[in-house]
Structures are given as C-alpha cells and as structure tokens.
C-alpha cells in the first residue's frame, strides 16, 4: 500500500506539472498572437516621413552642388551663334549645356567660353568667348572708341560669336574683370546632334591680339 500510495502521489504531481506546462505554453502563445500588424495608413505615413527626411537631408547638398560645382543651364539668345543655339533663327531651339562653376576663374585661355556677370547688367549672367587676356593688345571693333586697347592685369576681353550688333560684349563695355566669371562651358547636352564635350579650341576664331601696341 505504501508503494501504491507513493506511485499514486507521483502520478498526481506529474499531472499537475503537465497542466502547468500546458497553461504556460497557452499563455505565451496567446500573448504572441495578440500583437496587431500595423495598418496600411500607418505604414504609408511612416514611409512618407522617412522619404521627407531623406529629401530634407539631400536638398541642401543638391542646392550647394548646383550653385558651387556644376549647373545645367539653357542658353538664351543668339549672341553665341553659330557655336551655340545654331538653330535659334529657324526653330528658336536652345542649347542645354553644362556650366562648371568650380575653379571657374582658373586655367583661362583665349578661345574658351565662359559664363560671367554682365558689366552692363550685373543681375544677368552672359556667355561669351575669351578673345584676349591680361597683357594682350587687342584690336577692337565698333562701337569701342579706340582701335586698340591693352588688357590690364586681372582682366580679359570677351565677345559673342554672332558679331557686332548681335552681342553686348567688350566692344561696348571694354575689358572685363576676371572676377566676374561664374563658370566655364564644358559640355553640350542638347540637342543630341551636338552633345558632348565642348572643343572650343577647334572653333575658328580670328586672332586679333598682339604683344605690342601698333
């Protein structure tokens, strides 16, 4: 009897342990399944906030890059015809180009095409070709009052390719400070027929410079 009672007691203890174990498992399972999935609206709001934060992070970088390093811009007007806006007179089609602003005032050479603040209208950015650099004596065109002028230090002589009467350039306002340069034209993007690096040195430009005054 003692052996039987002991066996019975052991069976009762084992049964109680099993019930407790099942109860704990059931409680854990119920707790786990009670976590609700986020609603589609909450998911959309969270994604929208993340994207907005990403835009807020990159927008100042993009603005800085556009104003300091490189800018894509459209050429207005016919003053650089026929090198730029070659179809302007036919279709008013304008060229889209790359304006490199970083180190814009370095490595300047005769024949280069640069962007600069117009001495006549400082709020306007013009695009012109460098004809002469400091120390050069350049033969001018009308309406400049003297036939020759020596370019002073820190200045240059710029003109539009379209010629007299179609370009407001140094023949009107004289030598221009290099400090007015805001960029160099490096590539043409549109039209596709002209797309590529600007090879300004291949464009025929009349050399009207000399080292001495005539």
From TrEMBL:
Pfam families: Peptidase_S26. Residues 58-141 form the Peptidase S26 domain. Gene3D superfamilies: Umud Fragment, subunit A. It is found in: Mitochondrion inner membrane. One of its GO terms (biological process) is protein processing involved in protein targeting to mitochondrion. It is a single-pass membrane protein. SUPFAM superfamilies: LexA/Signal peptidase. Keywords: Hydrolase, Membrane, Mitochondrion, Mitochondrion inner membrane, Protease, Transmembrane, Transmembrane helix. InterPro entries: IMP2, LexA/Signal_pep-like_sf, Pept_S26A_signal_pept_1, Peptidase_S26. One of its GO terms (molecular function) is serine-type endopeptidase activity. This is Mitochondrial inner membrane protease subunit 2. It comes from Ophiostoma piceae (strain UAMH 11346) (Sap stain fungus). The lineage of its organism: Eukaryota, Fungi, Dikarya, Ascomycota, Pezizomycotina.
């Amino acid at each position: 009897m003692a052996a039987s009672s002991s066996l019975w007691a052991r069976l009762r203890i084992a049964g109680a342990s099993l019930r407790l174990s099942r109860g704990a498992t059931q409680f854990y399972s119920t707790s786990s399944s009670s976590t609700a999935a986020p609603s589609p609206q909450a998911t959309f709001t969270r994604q929208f906030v993340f994207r907005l934060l990403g835009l807020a992070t990159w927008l100042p970088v993009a603005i800085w890059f556009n104003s300091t390093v490189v800018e894509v811009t459209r050429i207005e007007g016919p003053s650089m015809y026929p090198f730029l806006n070659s179809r302007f007179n036919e279709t008013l089609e304008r060229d889209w180009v790359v304006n490199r602003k970083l180190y814009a005032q370095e490595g300047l050479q005769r024949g280069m095409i640069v962007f600069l603040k117009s001495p006549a209208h400082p709020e306007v950015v013009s695009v012109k070709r460098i004809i002469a650099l400091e120390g050069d004596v350049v033969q001018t065109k009308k309406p400049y009052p003297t036939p020759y002028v020596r370019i002073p230090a820190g200045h240059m002589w710029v003109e539009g390719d379209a010629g007299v009467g179609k370009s407001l350039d140094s023949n009107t306002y004289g030598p221009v400070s290099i400090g007015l340069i805001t960029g160099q034209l490096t590539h043409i993007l549109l039209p596709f027929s002209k797309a590529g690096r600007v090879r300004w040195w291949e464009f025929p430009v009349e050399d009207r410079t000399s080292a001495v005054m005539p």
